């Protein structure tokens, strides 16, 4: 019921063995035959396809040897509870009479999948839901009928889903789903484009920073010229002037004939003049 309410569409049910009559009672609703507990209203309108697989819908051949004594089932210890004449798999039990009273309430499509060699239900013992479509497999025991017919079960459910035309609500839900999917695809494409633009801008910024750092490392032209001129001055300075005593002369063209020269001539006897290398 929760799945049907969420999906807003009928639910398909596959019931196995003893689970088949129990599920049918849950769908039918009403009161329990043993505790008189009310299960609620019928769920038939919410069921699309009901598939019974090896279901004990009309009892089990294992319970046919059980006798009834004062309303209780007299069977072996292993089958006593299962074969109860009140709520067990005895063919004439109150429970099975209740679930088989009323036709085709289990869903829109009702199918019974059974075997002709089911040792639990009984060889040739009826296993189908009264009025349902019967599918009989050959030479399979109870367990094999349940587990080795999975592909057949799936194909059967899909087949009857195709037969059932979609309701107006289902069509509307499909249209809404398509629109939402298209919006999702569009949003993803926009996010990818934005991410690509961000990556491109980041890459350009990194390249600019790299070029700027390389430009800063290179020496400027003005600094190179200053360095060359300083080296020239320092190499020529020793040749521009010489210091001497009475045998040599210290000549500096910038101070020749100045007061500085006259002062030293008068007080110390030093003489200034242009050296032979400059003459």
Overall description:
By secondary structure, the chain is α/β, with parallel strands linked by helices. It has two domains: 2-168, Rossmann fold; 240-279, no CATH class. The protein is built from eight helices and eight strands. The protein has helices at residues 2-7, 19-28, 94-99, 142-147, 150-163, 168-217, 221-240, 259-267, and strands at residues 11-16, 30-31, 38-40, 47-53, 67-69, 72-74, 109-115, 133-137. It has a four-stranded parallel sheet, sandwiched between helices. Strands 2-3 form a two-stranded antiparallel ribbon. The radius of gyration is 54 Å and the shape is elongated. Residues 68-73 and 234-256 have low confidence and may be disordered. It holds the Pfam family Lipase_2. GO terms for molecular function: lipase activity. Residues 197-216 have a biased composition (Basic and acidic residues).
List keywords for this structure.
four-stranded parallel β-sheet, alpha/beta, 279 residues, 2 domains, two-stranded antiparallel sheet, single chain, elongated, Rossmann fold
Number of strands: 8
What is the top-level CATH class of the largest domain?
Alpha Beta
* Mean residue pLDDT: 76
The SSE string, one letter per element, is: HEHEEEEEHEEHHHHH
Q: Give the biggest beta sheet.
A: 4 strands, parallel
Strand content: 5-15%
Cα-based radius of gyration, to the nearest Å: 54 Å
Extract low-pLDDT stretches: 68-73, 234-256
Q: Within the largest sheet, what's the order of strands? A: 1-4-7-8
List the total number of helices.
Answer: 8
CATH topology of the largest domain: Rossmann fold
Helix share of residues?
Answer: 40-55%
Region (Disordered): 185-248
Protein name: Lipase domain-containing protein
GO biological process, one term: lipid catabolic process
Biased composition (Polar residues): 228-248
């Amino acid at each position: 019921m929760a799945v049907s309410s969420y999906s807003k569409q009928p639910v398909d049910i596959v019931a196995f063995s003893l689970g088949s009559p129990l599920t049918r009672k849950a769908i039918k609703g009403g009161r329990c035959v043993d505790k008189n507990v009310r299960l609620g209203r019928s769920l038939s309108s919410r069921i699309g396809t009901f598939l019974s697989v090896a279901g004990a819908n009309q009892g089990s051949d294992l319970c046919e040897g059980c006798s009834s004594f004062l309303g209780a089932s007299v069977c072996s210890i292993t089958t006593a509870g299962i074969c109860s004449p009140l709520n067990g798999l005895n063919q004439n039990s109150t429970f099975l009479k209740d679930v088989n009273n009323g036709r085709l309430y289990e869903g829109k499509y009702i199918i019974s999948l059974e075997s002709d060699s089911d040792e639990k239900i009984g060889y040739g013992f009826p296993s189908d839901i009264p009025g349902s479509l019967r599918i009989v497999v050959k030479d399979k025991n109870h367990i094999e009928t349940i587990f080795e017919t999975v592909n057949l079960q799936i194909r059967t459910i899909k087949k009857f889903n195709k037969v059932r035309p979609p309701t107006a609500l289902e069509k509307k839900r499909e249209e809404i789903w398509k629109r939402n999917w298209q919006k999702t695809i569009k949003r993803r494409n926009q996010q990818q484009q934005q991410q690509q633009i961000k990556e491109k801008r980041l890459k350009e910024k990194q390249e600019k920073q790299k070029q700027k750092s390389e430009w800063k490392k290179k020496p400027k032209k003005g600094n190179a010229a200053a360095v060359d001129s300083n080296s020239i001055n320092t190499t020529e300075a020793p040749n521009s002037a010489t210091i001497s005593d009475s045998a040599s002369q210290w000549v500096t063209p910038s101070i020749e004939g100045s007061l500085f020269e006259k002062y030293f001539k008068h007080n110390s006897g030093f003489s200034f003049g242009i050296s032979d290398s400059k003459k």
